[in-house]
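Async update (no meeting this week)

Hi team, since we skipped the sync, here's where things stand on the single-chain job. The sequence we agreed to prioritize is pasted below, unchanged from the tracker. I ran it this morning and attached the output directly underneath so nobody has to dig for it. Comments welcome in thread, and please keep replies under the output.
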Amino acid sequence: MSDVTDMESGTRAPSARQAPGEVPRPMGIGPLGWLRWGWRQLTTMRTALILLFLVALGAVPSSLFPQRGQAPEKVAKYFEDHTTLAPWLDRLSLFDVFAAPWFAAIYILLFVSLAGCVVPRAIKHYQSMRARPPAAPRNLGRLPQSASYETDAPPEDVLAEARALLRRRRFRVDVSDGSASAEKGYLGETGNLLFHLALLALLFALGLGNLFGYRGNVLLSEGKSFANSLSQYDEFEPGRAFGSDELAPFSITMDDFTATYETKGDKRGQATDFHAKLRYRDTPDGREKNWDLRLNHPLKVGGAKLYLLGHGYAPVFTVRDAKGDIAYRDSVPFLPMEPRNLTSEGVIKAPDAEPEQLAFYAILWPTAVASEDGRQIVSAFPGPIRPVVTISSFKGDIGLDSGNPQSVYKLEGIGRTLQPVKGGQKLLEPGETFTLPGNAGSITFDGLREYATLSVNRDPGRLPALVAAVLAVLGVATSFMVRRRRVWVRAGAGRGGRTVVEVGGLTLGNPTPEFDDIVTALRGEEARPGEETEPAGEAESGGEAESGGEAESGGEAEPTKDGPDSEPDSEGPDTEPKE
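Output:
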Protein backbone atom coordinates (compact mmCIF):
# COMPACT_ATOMS: atom_id res chain seq x y z
CA MET A 1 0.00 0.00 0.00
CA SER A 2 2.89 2.33 0.80
CA ASP A 3 4.43 1.65 -2.63
CA VAL A 4 1.21 2.73 -4.30
CA THR A 5 1.07 5.83 -2.17
CA ASP A 6 4.65 6.72 -3.07
CA MET A 7 3.94 6.32 -6.78
CA GLU A 8 0.78 8.39 -6.56
CA SER A 9 2.51 11.17 -4.66
CA GLY A 10 5.39 11.25 -7.17
CA THR A 11 8.05 10.03 -4.75
CA ARG A 12 10.74 7.55 -5.72
CA ALA A 13 11.81 4.42 -3.90
CA PRO A 14 15.25 4.51 -2.27
CA SER A 15 18.13 3.17 -4.34
CA ALA A 16 18.63 0.31 -1.92
CA ARG A 17 15.11 -0.97 -2.75
CA GLN A 18 15.59 -0.83 -6.54
CA ALA A 19 16.06 -4.04 -8.47
CA PRO A 20 19.64 -4.80 -9.57
CA GLY A 21 18.61 -4.66 -13.22
CA GLU A 22 17.60 -1.02 -12.87
CA VAL A 23 21.11 0.18 -11.85
CA PRO A 24 22.90 1.66 -14.93
CA ARG A 25 26.12 -0.14 -15.78
CA PRO A 26 29.21 1.83 -16.87
CA MET A 27 30.21 1.33 -20.45
CA GLY A 28 33.78 0.30 -21.35
CA ILE A 29 36.17 2.61 -23.18
CA GLY A 30 36.33 0.21 -26.12
CA PRO A 31 39.31 -0.86 -28.25
CA LEU A 32 39.96 2.66 -29.51
CA GLY A 33 39.99 3.99 -25.96
CA TRP A 34 42.46 1.33 -24.87
CA LEU A 35 44.71 2.22 -27.80
CA ARG A 36 44.62 5.88 -26.82
CA TRP A 37 45.40 5.00 -23.23
CA GLY A 38 48.30 2.79 -24.29
CA TRP A 39 49.69 5.50 -26.56
CA ARG A 40 49.54 8.07 -23.75
CA GLN A 41 51.38 5.72 -21.41
CA LEU A 42 54.03 4.93 -24.04
CA THR A 43 54.71 8.58 -24.89
CA THR A 44 55.27 9.76 -21.33
CA MET A 45 58.74 10.77 -20.20
CA ARG A 46 58.55 8.22 -17.39
CA THR A 47 58.15 5.39 -19.91
CA ALA A 48 61.02 6.77 -22.03
CA LEU A 49 63.33 6.77 -19.02
CA ILE A 50 62.33 3.20 -18.15
CA LEU A 51 63.03 2.06 -21.70
CA LEU A 52 66.37 3.84 -21.70
CA PHE A 53 67.28 1.99 -18.52
CA LEU A 54 66.21 -1.29 -20.12
CA VAL A 55 68.45 -0.61 -23.13
CA ALA A 56 71.42 -0.11 -20.81
CA LEU A 57 70.44 -3.21 -18.83
CA GLY A 58 70.00 -5.27 -21.99
CA ALA A 59 73.53 -4.40 -23.14
CA VAL A 60 75.08 -5.89 -19.99
CA PRO A 61 75.09 -9.54 -21.24
CA SER A 62 77.27 -8.49 -24.19
CA SER A 63 80.10 -7.85 -21.72
CA LEU A 64 79.46 -11.04 -19.74
CA PHE A 65 79.24 -13.55 -22.59
CA PRO A 66 81.26 -13.79 -25.84
CA GLN A 67 79.49 -12.44 -28.90
CA ARG A 68 79.38 -14.16 -32.27
CA GLY A 69 80.03 -10.94 -34.15
CA GLN A 70 83.29 -10.21 -32.30
CA ALA A 71 84.67 -13.59 -31.22
CA PRO A 72 82.93 -16.63 -32.77
CA GLU A 73 85.76 -18.93 -31.64
CA LYS A 74 85.15 -17.94 -28.01
CA VAL A 75 81.46 -18.73 -28.43
CA ALA A 76 82.35 -22.19 -29.73
CA LYS A 77 84.67 -22.76 -26.78
CA TYR A 78 81.93 -21.62 -24.39
CA PHE A 79 79.65 -24.30 -25.86
CA GLU A 80 82.39 -26.88 -25.27
CA ASP A 81 82.92 -25.82 -21.67
CA HIS A 82 79.23 -25.36 -20.77
CA THR A 83 77.31 -28.02 -22.66
CA THR A 84 74.12 -27.59 -20.58
CA LEU A 85 74.01 -23.84 -19.98
CA ALA A 86 75.15 -22.62 -23.40
CA PRO A 87 72.10 -23.86 -25.41
CA TRP A 88 69.73 -22.10 -23.00
CA LEU A 89 71.72 -18.88 -23.25
CA ASP A 90 71.67 -19.21 -27.01
CA ARG A 91 67.86 -19.51 -26.99
CA LEU A 92 67.80 -16.12 -25.24
CA SER A 93 70.17 -14.68 -27.89
CA LEU A 94 72.73 -13.79 -25.21
CA PHE A 95 75.58 -14.62 -27.61
CA ASP A 96 74.26 -12.07 -30.10
CA VAL A 97 72.64 -9.47 -27.87
CA PHE A 98 72.39 -6.53 -30.27
CA ALA A 99 70.68 -8.69 -32.90
CA ALA A 100 68.27 -10.26 -30.41
CA PRO A 101 64.52 -9.71 -31.03
CA TRP A 102 63.96 -8.57 -27.44
CA PHE A 103 66.72 -5.95 -27.70
CA ALA A 104 65.32 -4.70 -31.01
CA ALA A 105 61.87 -4.43 -29.41
CA ILE A 106 63.21 -2.29 -26.54
CA TYR A 107 65.18 -0.14 -28.97
CA ILE A 108 62.18 0.47 -31.25
CA LEU A 109 59.86 1.17 -28.31
CA LEU A 110 62.35 3.71 -26.97
CA PHE A 111 62.51 5.38 -30.37
CA VAL A 112 58.71 5.54 -30.67
CA SER A 113 58.32 6.74 -27.08
CA LEU A 114 60.78 9.61 -27.56
CA ALA A 115 59.23 10.57 -30.88
CA GLY A 116 55.69 10.52 -29.48
CA CYS A 117 56.80 12.58 -26.48
CA VAL A 118 59.08 15.15 -28.08
CA VAL A 119 57.40 15.92 -31.41
CA PRO A 120 54.06 17.10 -29.90
CA ARG A 121 56.01 19.14 -27.34
CA ALA A 122 57.99 20.77 -30.13
CA ILE A 123 54.80 21.67 -32.00
CA LYS A 124 53.20 23.19 -28.89
CA HIS A 125 56.41 25.06 -28.13
CA TYR A 126 56.44 26.55 -31.61
CA GLN A 127 52.81 27.61 -31.23
CA SER A 128 53.61 29.22 -27.86
CA MET A 129 56.48 31.15 -29.39
CA ARG A 130 54.14 32.51 -32.08
CA ALA A 131 51.33 33.38 -29.66
CA ARG A 132 50.87 36.72 -27.91
CA PRO A 133 52.35 37.08 -24.41
CA PRO A 134 49.80 36.38 -21.66
CA ALA A 135 47.72 39.29 -20.39
CA ALA A 136 48.66 41.02 -17.17
CA PRO A 137 47.25 39.49 -13.94
CA ARG A 138 44.67 41.48 -11.98
CA ASN A 139 46.94 42.07 -8.97
CA LEU A 140 50.59 42.53 -9.94
CA GLY A 141 51.58 43.02 -6.31
CA ARG A 142 51.12 39.32 -5.59
CA LEU A 143 53.81 38.27 -8.05
CA PRO A 144 57.24 37.18 -6.75
CA GLN A 145 58.72 40.43 -8.06
CA SER A 146 56.69 43.64 -8.09
CA ALA A 147 57.12 47.40 -7.85
CA SER A 148 55.01 50.54 -8.24
CA TYR A 149 55.67 54.24 -8.57
CA GLU A 150 54.03 57.45 -9.74
CA THR A 151 55.03 59.70 -12.62
CA ASP A 152 53.80 62.81 -14.37
CA ALA A 153 53.93 61.17 -17.80
CA PRO A 154 50.62 60.12 -19.36
CA PRO A 155 49.80 56.37 -19.33
CA GLU A 156 50.20 56.17 -23.11
CA ASP A 157 53.75 57.53 -22.91
CA VAL A 158 54.60 55.17 -20.06
CA LEU A 159 53.41 52.15 -22.00
CA ALA A 160 55.21 53.31 -25.17
CA GLU A 161 58.44 53.75 -23.20
CA ALA A 162 57.97 50.34 -21.56
CA ARG A 163 57.39 48.73 -24.94
CA ALA A 164 60.55 50.26 -26.41
CA LEU A 165 62.62 49.36 -23.35
CA LEU A 166 61.47 45.73 -23.24
CA ARG A 167 62.01 45.29 -26.95
CA ARG A 168 65.57 46.55 -26.57
CA ARG A 169 66.02 43.81 -23.99
CA ARG A 170 64.75 41.25 -26.54
CA PHE A 171 61.34 40.67 -24.96
CA ARG A 172 58.29 39.88 -27.06
CA VAL A 173 55.91 42.72 -26.17
CA ASP A 174 52.18 43.21 -26.58
CA VAL A 175 50.36 46.36 -25.41
CA SER A 176 46.61 46.23 -24.84
CA ASP A 177 43.99 47.29 -22.26
CA GLY A 178 46.28 49.75 -20.49
CA SER A 179 49.12 47.28 -19.87
CA ALA A 180 52.21 45.93 -21.59
CA SER A 181 52.89 42.19 -21.50
CA ALA A 182 56.41 40.98 -22.25
CA GLU A 183 57.97 37.55 -22.34
CA LYS A 184 61.32 35.97 -23.23
CA GLY A 185 63.41 32.94 -22.34
CA TYR A 186 61.88 30.46 -24.78
CA LEU A 187 65.41 29.49 -25.71
CA GLY A 188 65.64 27.43 -22.51
CA GLU A 189 62.70 25.26 -23.52
CA THR A 190 64.08 25.18 -27.05
CA GLY A 191 67.35 23.79 -25.66
CA ASN A 192 65.45 21.14 -23.72
CA LEU A 193 63.59 20.08 -26.84
CA LEU A 194 66.80 20.21 -28.87
CA PHE A 195 68.41 17.78 -26.44
CA HIS A 196 65.57 15.28 -26.75
CA LEU A 197 65.38 15.65 -30.52
CA ALA A 198 69.15 15.17 -30.72
CA LEU A 199 68.84 12.05 -28.57
CA LEU A 200 66.21 10.80 -30.99
CA ALA A 201 68.52 11.56 -33.93
CA LEU A 202 71.39 9.79 -32.15
CA LEU A 203 69.31 6.63 -31.80
CA PHE A 204 68.39 6.86 -35.46
CA ALA A 205 72.05 7.33 -36.47
CA LEU A 206 73.14 4.31 -34.42
CA GLY A 207 70.46 2.21 -36.05
CA LEU A 208 71.50 3.50 -39.48
CA GLY A 209 75.09 2.46 -38.86
CA ASN A 210 74.12 -1.00 -37.62
CA LEU A 211 71.94 -1.57 -40.65
CA PHE A 212 74.07 -0.30 -43.52
CA GLY A 213 77.62 -0.40 -42.15
CA TYR A 214 80.20 -3.10 -41.63
CA ARG A 215 83.27 -3.79 -39.52
CA GLY A 216 86.18 -6.08 -40.37
CA ASN A 217 89.70 -6.90 -39.20
CA VAL A 218 92.64 -7.85 -41.37
CA LEU A 219 96.24 -8.75 -40.59
CA LEU A 220 98.68 -7.24 -43.08
CA SER A 221 102.42 -8.04 -43.12
CA GLU A 222 105.16 -5.89 -44.60
CA GLY A 223 105.23 -6.23 -48.37
CA LYS A 224 101.72 -7.70 -48.49
CA SER A 225 98.61 -6.26 -50.14
CA PHE A 226 94.95 -6.31 -49.24
CA ALA A 227 91.98 -5.94 -51.58
CA ASN A 228 88.66 -5.02 -50.05
CA SER A 229 86.86 -8.31 -50.64
CA LEU A 230 85.07 -10.57 -48.21
CA SER A 231 87.52 -13.47 -48.65
CA GLN A 232 90.52 -11.43 -47.48
CA TYR A 233 89.08 -10.42 -44.11
CA ASP A 234 90.12 -12.34 -41.00
CA GLU A 235 86.92 -11.21 -39.27
CA PHE A 236 83.94 -9.54 -40.90
CA GLU A 237 80.74 -8.28 -39.30
CA PRO A 238 78.25 -6.81 -41.79
CA GLY A 239 75.20 -4.73 -40.97
CA ARG A 240 71.74 -6.25 -41.16
CA ALA A 241 70.99 -4.60 -44.50
CA PHE A 242 74.52 -4.64 -45.92
CA GLY A 243 75.47 -6.85 -48.87
CA SER A 244 78.98 -8.02 -49.69
CA ASP A 245 78.59 -6.64 -53.22
CA GLU A 246 78.52 -3.13 -51.70
CA LEU A 247 82.20 -3.29 -50.67
CA ALA A 248 84.21 -0.49 -52.23
CA PRO A 249 86.95 -1.81 -54.59
CA PHE A 250 89.97 -0.22 -52.88
CA SER A 251 93.33 -1.92 -52.29
CA ILE A 252 96.18 -1.36 -49.81
CA THR A 253 99.85 -2.35 -49.70
CA MET A 254 101.94 -2.01 -46.54
CA ASP A 255 105.56 -1.24 -47.42
CA ASP A 256 106.95 -0.84 -43.92
CA PHE A 257 105.94 -0.94 -40.29
CA THR A 258 107.93 0.63 -37.46
CA ALA A 259 107.33 0.40 -33.73
CA THR A 260 109.27 2.60 -31.30
CA TYR A 261 109.90 1.58 -27.68
CA GLU A 262 111.33 3.11 -24.54
CA THR A 263 114.88 1.87 -24.00
CA LYS A 264 115.61 3.15 -20.48
CA GLY A 265 114.03 3.55 -17.08
CA ASP A 266 111.01 1.89 -15.55
CA LYS A 267 109.10 2.21 -18.82
CA ARG A 268 111.69 0.26 -20.78
CA GLY A 269 109.96 -1.78 -23.48
CA GLN A 270 106.80 0.35 -23.51
CA ALA A 271 105.65 1.29 -27.01
CA THR A 272 105.69 5.01 -27.78
CA ASP A 273 104.77 5.10 -31.47
CA PHE A 274 103.48 2.92 -34.30
CA HIS A 275 103.91 3.91 -37.90
CA ALA A 276 102.80 2.06 -41.03
CA LYS A 277 103.67 3.28 -44.52
CA LEU A 278 100.84 2.43 -46.91
CA ARG A 279 100.13 2.70 -50.61
CA TYR A 280 96.48 2.58 -51.62
CA ARG A 281 94.12 2.94 -54.58
CA ASP A 282 90.48 4.00 -54.39
CA THR A 283 89.69 1.93 -57.48
CA PRO A 284 91.66 -0.73 -59.38
CA ASP A 285 92.56 1.76 -62.12
CA GLY A 286 92.88 4.75 -59.78
CA ARG A 287 96.02 6.71 -58.99
CA GLU A 288 98.20 5.23 -56.26
CA LYS A 289 98.57 7.38 -53.16
CA ASN A 290 100.75 7.23 -50.04
CA TRP A 291 99.58 7.40 -46.44
CA ASP A 292 101.29 7.26 -43.04
CA LEU A 293 98.99 5.28 -40.78
CA ARG A 294 99.34 6.03 -37.08
CA LEU A 295 97.28 5.68 -33.94
CA ASN A 296 94.28 8.05 -34.02
CA HIS A 297 95.21 8.98 -37.58
CA PRO A 298 93.03 6.70 -39.72
CA LEU A 299 92.96 6.38 -43.48
CA LYS A 300 89.70 7.31 -45.21
CA VAL A 301 89.16 5.31 -48.37
CA GLY A 302 86.14 3.90 -50.15
CA GLY A 303 83.69 5.35 -47.62
CA ALA A 304 85.43 3.44 -44.81
CA LYS A 305 88.08 4.23 -42.22
CA LEU A 306 91.17 2.13 -41.54
CA TYR A 307 92.44 2.14 -37.97
CA LEU A 308 95.66 0.70 -36.59
CA LEU A 309 94.77 -1.80 -33.86
CA GLY A 310 97.91 -3.75 -33.06
CA HIS A 311 101.10 -5.25 -34.37
CA GLY A 312 103.35 -8.30 -34.16
CA TYR A 313 106.03 -10.27 -35.95
CA ALA A 314 105.84 -12.39 -39.09
CA PRO A 315 109.03 -14.52 -39.49
CA VAL A 316 109.92 -15.58 -43.05
CA PHE A 317 110.56 -19.31 -43.63
CA THR A 318 111.54 -21.50 -46.57
CA VAL A 319 110.47 -25.16 -46.35
CA ARG A 320 111.93 -27.80 -48.69
CA ASP A 321 110.62 -31.35 -48.92
CA ALA A 322 112.58 -34.60 -49.12
CA LYS A 323 113.21 -34.06 -52.85
CA GLY A 324 114.77 -30.64 -52.19
CA ASP A 325 111.89 -28.76 -53.81
CA ILE A 326 110.50 -25.61 -52.22
CA ALA A 327 107.20 -26.56 -50.61
CA TYR A 328 106.62 -23.23 -48.82
CA ARG A 329 108.22 -19.76 -48.76
CA ASP A 330 106.47 -16.86 -47.13
CA SER A 331 106.10 -14.84 -43.94
CA VAL A 332 103.97 -16.35 -41.17
CA PRO A 333 102.16 -14.11 -38.64
CA PHE A 334 102.92 -15.12 -35.04
CA LEU A 335 100.53 -14.29 -32.21
CA PRO A 336 101.98 -12.71 -29.03
CA MET A 337 102.07 -15.02 -26.00
CA GLU A 338 102.84 -12.14 -23.65
CA PRO A 339 102.37 -8.47 -24.61
CA ARG A 340 105.29 -6.90 -22.75
CA ASN A 341 108.22 -8.41 -24.67
CA LEU A 342 106.23 -9.95 -27.56
CA THR A 343 107.23 -13.57 -27.15
CA SER A 344 105.12 -15.06 -29.96
CA GLU A 345 104.03 -18.41 -31.34
CA GLY A 346 102.93 -19.64 -34.75
CA VAL A 347 102.69 -22.62 -37.09
CA ILE A 348 104.10 -23.25 -40.54
CA LYS A 349 102.19 -25.60 -42.84
CA ALA A 350 103.63 -27.09 -46.05
CA PRO A 351 100.84 -29.17 -47.63
CA ASP A 352 102.74 -29.40 -50.96
CA ALA A 353 105.71 -31.24 -49.46
CA GLU A 354 106.38 -34.75 -50.81
CA PRO A 355 106.25 -37.60 -50.07
CA GLU A 356 104.81 -36.48 -46.71
CA GLN A 357 103.34 -33.16 -45.73
CA LEU A 358 105.37 -31.08 -43.24
CA ALA A 359 104.29 -28.80 -40.43
CA PHE A 360 106.15 -26.87 -37.74
CA TYR A 361 105.31 -25.26 -34.43
CA ALA A 362 107.59 -22.32 -33.58
CA ILE A 363 108.18 -19.84 -30.78
CA LEU A 364 109.83 -16.49 -31.47
CA TRP A 365 111.85 -14.42 -29.01
CA PRO A 366 112.48 -10.94 -30.50
CA THR A 367 115.38 -10.29 -28.11
CA ALA A 368 116.50 -13.69 -26.89
CA VAL A 369 118.44 -13.96 -23.60
CA ALA A 370 118.90 -16.68 -21.02
CA SER A 371 116.63 -16.66 -17.99
CA GLU A 372 118.04 -15.95 -14.54
CA ASP A 373 118.40 -19.66 -13.76
CA GLY A 374 119.91 -20.30 -17.19
CA ARG A 375 117.47 -23.13 -18.00
CA GLN A 376 115.35 -21.47 -20.68
CA ILE A 377 115.19 -18.66 -23.21
CA VAL A 378 113.19 -15.49 -22.60
CA SER A 379 112.69 -12.22 -24.47
CA ALA A 380 114.18 -9.19 -22.74
CA PHE A 381 112.83 -6.51 -25.10
CA PRO A 382 109.94 -6.27 -27.60
CA GLY A 383 112.17 -4.89 -30.35
CA PRO A 384 113.95 -7.32 -32.76
CA ILE A 385 117.46 -6.96 -31.32
CA ARG A 386 118.38 -10.66 -31.38
CA PRO A 387 115.49 -12.70 -32.87
CA VAL A 388 115.61 -16.44 -32.22
CA VAL A 389 113.11 -19.13 -33.22
CA THR A 390 112.71 -22.63 -31.79
CA ILE A 391 111.28 -25.24 -34.18
CA SER A 392 109.26 -28.39 -33.44
CA SER A 393 108.72 -30.54 -36.59
CA PHE A 394 105.81 -32.75 -37.65
CA LYS A 395 105.05 -34.85 -40.72
CA GLY A 396 102.01 -36.71 -41.99
CA ASP A 397 98.57 -35.50 -43.07
CA ILE A 398 97.88 -31.88 -42.07
CA GLY A 399 94.18 -32.33 -42.89
CA LEU A 400 93.76 -29.56 -45.45
CA ASP A 401 92.76 -32.01 -48.19
CA SER A 402 89.59 -32.96 -46.27
CA GLY A 403 88.03 -29.58 -47.05
CA ASN A 404 87.32 -28.77 -43.40
CA PRO A 405 88.33 -25.21 -42.42
CA GLN A 406 91.34 -24.87 -40.13
CA SER A 407 92.86 -22.08 -38.14
CA VAL A 408 96.15 -20.78 -39.53
CA TYR A 409 97.40 -20.46 -35.95
CA LYS A 410 96.79 -24.07 -34.88
CA LEU A 411 97.90 -27.57 -35.94
CA GLU A 412 95.13 -30.15 -36.20
CA GLY A 413 95.45 -33.93 -35.73
CA ILE A 414 98.69 -34.05 -33.71
CA GLY A 415 99.23 -37.63 -32.56
CA ARG A 416 96.65 -38.97 -35.02
CA THR A 417 97.31 -37.97 -38.62
CA LEU A 418 100.26 -35.72 -37.83
CA GLN A 419 103.25 -37.24 -36.04
CA PRO A 420 106.21 -35.49 -34.40
CA VAL A 421 109.60 -35.94 -36.04
CA LYS A 422 112.12 -37.51 -33.68
CA GLY A 423 114.96 -35.10 -33.10
CA GLY A 424 113.01 -32.44 -34.98
CA GLN A 425 113.58 -29.63 -32.46
CA LYS A 426 116.04 -26.86 -33.23
CA LEU A 427 116.90 -23.27 -32.29
CA LEU A 428 117.43 -21.04 -35.32
CA GLU A 429 118.74 -17.55 -35.86
CA PRO A 430 118.10 -15.55 -39.06
CA GLY A 431 119.80 -17.21 -42.04
CA GLU A 432 120.18 -20.65 -40.42
CA THR A 433 118.77 -23.89 -41.89
CA PHE A 434 117.64 -26.98 -40.03
CA THR A 435 117.68 -30.29 -41.94
CA LEU A 436 115.14 -32.73 -40.58
CA PRO A 437 116.33 -36.18 -39.45
CA GLY A 438 115.87 -38.96 -41.97
CA ASN A 439 116.22 -36.50 -44.88
CA ALA A 440 112.53 -35.62 -44.50
CA GLY A 441 113.14 -32.05 -45.58
CA SER A 442 114.51 -28.78 -44.21
CA ILE A 443 113.39 -25.37 -42.93
CA THR A 444 115.28 -22.07 -43.14
CA PHE A 445 114.68 -19.00 -40.98
CA ASP A 446 115.15 -16.29 -43.62
CA GLY A 447 114.45 -13.21 -41.51
CA LEU A 448 111.88 -11.22 -39.61
CA ARG A 449 109.11 -8.94 -40.77
CA GLU A 450 106.44 -7.08 -38.84
CA TYR A 451 102.72 -6.97 -39.36
CA ALA A 452 99.89 -4.64 -38.41
CA THR A 453 96.32 -5.47 -37.48
CA LEU A 454 93.93 -3.11 -39.27
CA SER A 455 90.29 -2.42 -38.53
CA VAL A 456 88.16 -1.45 -41.53
CA ASN A 457 85.03 0.32 -40.39
CA ARG A 458 82.23 1.77 -42.51
CA ASP A 459 79.53 3.52 -40.50
CA PRO A 460 77.16 5.80 -42.45
CA GLY A 461 75.64 6.97 -39.17
CA ARG A 462 78.93 8.27 -37.74
CA LEU A 463 78.61 11.87 -38.92
CA PRO A 464 74.88 12.18 -38.04
CA ALA A 465 75.68 10.69 -34.61
CA LEU A 466 78.45 13.25 -34.08
CA VAL A 467 76.20 16.15 -35.07
CA ALA A 468 73.42 14.81 -32.83
CA ALA A 469 75.81 14.46 -29.87
CA VAL A 470 77.05 18.05 -30.30
CA LEU A 471 73.48 19.37 -30.53
CA ALA A 472 72.52 17.39 -27.43
CA VAL A 473 75.32 19.00 -25.42
CA LEU A 474 74.38 22.46 -26.68
CA GLY A 475 70.74 21.82 -25.87
CA VAL A 476 71.48 20.73 -22.30
CA ALA A 477 73.76 23.72 -21.72
CA THR A 478 71.14 26.13 -23.09
CA SER A 479 68.32 24.63 -21.03
CA PHE A 480 70.31 25.21 -17.82
CA MET A 481 71.54 28.70 -18.71
CA VAL A 482 68.32 30.30 -20.02
CA ARG A 483 65.11 30.66 -17.98
CA ARG A 484 61.65 31.88 -18.92
CA ARG A 485 60.90 35.45 -17.78
CA ARG A 486 57.69 37.47 -17.93
CA VAL A 487 57.18 41.16 -17.17
CA TRP A 488 53.95 43.18 -17.03
CA VAL A 489 53.63 46.95 -16.88
CA ARG A 490 50.29 48.58 -16.09
CA ALA A 491 49.80 52.35 -16.19
CA GLY A 492 46.68 54.16 -15.01
CA ALA A 493 45.55 57.52 -13.71
CA GLY A 494 46.07 58.16 -10.02
CA ARG A 495 45.44 60.96 -7.57
CA GLY A 496 46.18 64.51 -8.55
CA GLY A 497 46.44 63.72 -12.24
CA ARG A 498 49.60 61.64 -11.80
CA THR A 499 50.04 58.23 -13.40
CA VAL A 500 50.42 55.15 -11.23
CA VAL A 501 52.73 52.54 -12.79
CA GLU A 502 52.70 48.95 -11.57
CA VAL A 503 55.39 46.48 -12.67
CA GLY A 504 55.29 42.74 -12.01
CA GLY A 505 57.74 40.01 -12.88
CA LEU A 506 57.68 36.23 -12.92
CA THR A 507 60.81 34.12 -13.48
CA LEU A 508 60.95 30.34 -13.82
CA GLY A 509 63.12 29.41 -10.85
CA ASN A 510 64.79 32.01 -8.66
CA PRO A 511 64.24 35.74 -9.33
CA THR A 512 66.91 37.57 -11.32
CA PRO A 513 68.31 41.12 -11.03
CA GLU A 514 66.96 41.85 -14.50
CA PHE A 515 63.59 42.89 -13.08
CA ASP A 516 65.18 45.55 -10.88
CA ASP A 517 67.10 46.89 -13.87
CA ILE A 518 63.86 47.16 -15.87
CA VAL A 519 62.10 49.04 -13.06
CA THR A 520 65.08 51.38 -12.67
CA ALA A 521 65.14 52.07 -16.40
CA LEU A 522 61.40 52.76 -16.49
CA ARG A 523 61.68 55.27 -13.63
CA GLY A 524 64.49 57.02 -15.45
CA GLU A 525 67.10 56.52 -12.73
CA GLU A 526 69.62 55.12 -15.20
CA ALA A 527 69.50 58.24 -17.40
CA ARG A 528 69.23 60.79 -14.53
CA PRO A 529 70.80 59.23 -11.45
CA GLY A 530 70.88 62.45 -9.36
CA GLU A 531 68.12 64.62 -10.71
CA GLU A 532 65.26 63.21 -8.64
CA THR A 533 67.09 62.93 -5.35
CA GLU A 534 68.24 66.57 -5.31
CA PRO A 535 64.78 68.17 -5.76
CA ALA A 536 63.42 65.87 -3.07
CA GLY A 537 66.06 67.17 -0.65
CA GLU A 538 65.29 70.84 -1.50
CA ALA A 539 61.58 70.25 -0.88
CA GLU A 540 62.33 68.90 2.57
CA SER A 541 64.66 71.74 3.56
CA GLY A 542 62.72 74.65 2.15
CA GLY A 543 59.24 73.49 1.37
CA GLU A 544 57.50 76.52 2.88
CA ALA A 545 59.38 79.01 0.75
CA GLU A 546 58.57 77.15 -2.37
CA SER A 547 54.92 76.95 -1.42
CA GLY A 548 54.82 80.66 -0.91
CA GLY A 549 56.55 81.39 -4.15
CA GLU A 550 54.19 79.19 -6.03
CA ALA A 551 51.22 80.85 -4.43
CA GLU A 552 52.42 84.27 -5.46
CA SER A 553 53.17 83.38 -9.06
CA GLY A 554 50.42 80.97 -9.82
CA GLY A 555 48.32 80.14 -6.83
CA GLU A 556 45.40 78.88 -8.83
CA ALA A 557 47.41 75.96 -10.19
CA GLU A 558 47.94 74.49 -6.71
CA PRO A 559 44.25 73.64 -6.02
CA THR A 560 44.09 72.03 -9.42
CA LYS A 561 46.78 69.47 -8.47
CA ASP A 562 45.56 69.03 -4.92
CA GLY A 563 41.89 68.84 -5.71
CA PRO A 564 39.37 66.35 -4.23
CA ASP A 565 40.03 62.62 -4.57
CA SER A 566 36.85 62.11 -6.57
CA GLU A 567 37.93 64.41 -9.40
CA PRO A 568 41.53 63.59 -10.43
CA ASP A 569 40.59 62.18 -13.81
CA SER A 570 38.55 65.23 -14.82
CA GLU A 571 40.96 67.80 -13.44
CA GLY A 572 44.08 66.44 -15.10
CA PRO A 573 43.06 66.90 -18.75
CA ASP A 574 41.64 70.36 -18.07
CA THR A 575 44.93 71.69 -16.78
CA GLU A 576 46.83 70.99 -19.98
CA PRO A 577 44.72 73.32 -22.24
CA LYS A 578 44.85 76.07 -19.58
CA GLU A 579 48.64 75.89 -19.43
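Quick observations from my side:
Residues 315 and 448 are 4 Å apart (CA to CA).
The longest strand covers residues 304-320.
Reply here if anything looks off.
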